[in-house]
Design brief:
single chain; 321 residues; alpha/beta; Rossmann fold; 7-stranded mixed beta sheet; 10 helices; 12 strands; 31% helix; disordered N terminus; EC 2.5.1.16; Spermidine synthase; Spermidine_synt_N_sf
Length: 321
């Protein structure tokens, strides 16, 4: 009997190993991210070389849309607890439940420091969340968005109408282009630039180097501000230090803020904050008290400054850059 049980266990192990090998072969053959195939009918699990040894999972209610654009795999599904979810190359970009935390902080941190900003550029951000927040400012006369993948915009307009609603504003101009190329001949133009990029692999890779930040600097007006998505303080300290280093070679003031958001790696995401002046971005110049901002769910006057209060280990890592 013991021998029979042992043989059955061995056979089961062989079957499981064979299945995993087949999955790995399929992944390599098609050059898809493994995470695209690590969900059953009930669960989506996010894996990436950006956070090795860990994963994040959401229970699936319904797959709504799947396609492969010119640049990346695009997936939209409805989860049981976080609403609809946008996934690019196997990595969660936003969920309906918590997207406001990221979009509000990325927008209102620079916009409440800048005095009467009129001309704003959004790099990436095809889902439209940043644009939605920018459109609340009456002082803004022009909003340019440079998104490399038109499919992201099209999908967001269909499945995330409450997030992409800003595209209907007449002040918004859409440029389907690599932002690094878009900025090559732009000088002294923008009051605020918001870099809403995905991770530094794939289409967004060109947005994480010294050359790109030189273009950002040149495109800003003399008193301009830039903020950029800057990864997780728990697992991306190397990337954070590199980005701070790029910015400090150019800007007078460079700071780092942290946002709490459950569906991003380790439950947080950072903001690189760059200023051409000595003022910095830690303290807002105004409170958002008009009716346009009545629906804010994460950003407030106190939370603005609190985001710059960092843990001791990170301060030690970045203090001498």
């Amino acid at each position: 009997m013991d021998k029979l049980i042992s043989n059955n266990k061995l056979k089961l192990s062989v079957v499981l190993l064979g299945g995993l090998c087949s999955l790995a072969y399929y992944h390599l053959k098609n050059k898809f991210h493994l995470s695209q195939f690590c969900f059953s009918k009930k669960w989506f699990s996010e894996f990436s070389i950006m956070w090795p040894g860990q994963a994040f999972s959401l229970k699936i209610k319904k797959i709504l849309y799947e396609t492969k654009s010119k640049y990346q795999n695009v997936l939209v599904f409805e989860s049981t607890t976080y609403g609809k979810v946008l996934v690019l190359d196997g990595v969660i970009q936003l969920t309906e439940k918590d997207e406001f935390a990221y979009h509000e902080m990325m927008t209102h941190v620079p916009m409440t420091v800048s005095k009467e900003p009129k001309n704003v550029l959004v790099v990436g951000g095809g889902d439209g969340g940043i644009i939605r927040e920018l459109c609340k400012y009456k002082s803004v006369e022009n909003i340019d968005i440079c998104e490399i993948d038109e499919t992201v915009i099209e999908v967001s307009k269909i499945y995330f109408k409450n997030i992409s609603c800003g595209y209907e504003d007449k002040r918004v101009n859409v440029f389907i282009e690599d932002a690094s190329k878009f900025l090559e001949n732009v000088t002294n133009t923008y009051d605020v630039i918001i870099v809403d990029s995905s991770d530094p692999i794939g289409p967004a890779e060109t947005l994480f180097n010294q050359n790109f930040y030189e273009k950002i600097y040149n495109a800003l007006k003399p008193n301009g501000y830039c903020v950029a998505q800057c990864e997780s303080l728990w697992i991306h300290v190397g990337t954070i230090k590199n980005m701070i280093g790029y910015a400090k070679k150019l800007f007078k003031k460079v700071e780092y803020a942290n946002i709490s958001i459950p569906t991003y790696p380790c439950g947080c995401i950072g903001i690189l904050c760059c200023s051409k002046t000595d003022t910095g971005l830690t303290k807002p110049n105004k409170k958002l008290e008009s009716k346009e901002f009545a629906d804010l769910k994460y950003y407030n006057y106190e939370n603005h400054s609190a985001a710059f209060k960092l843990p001791a280990f990170l301060l030690k890592e970045i203090e001498n850059i």
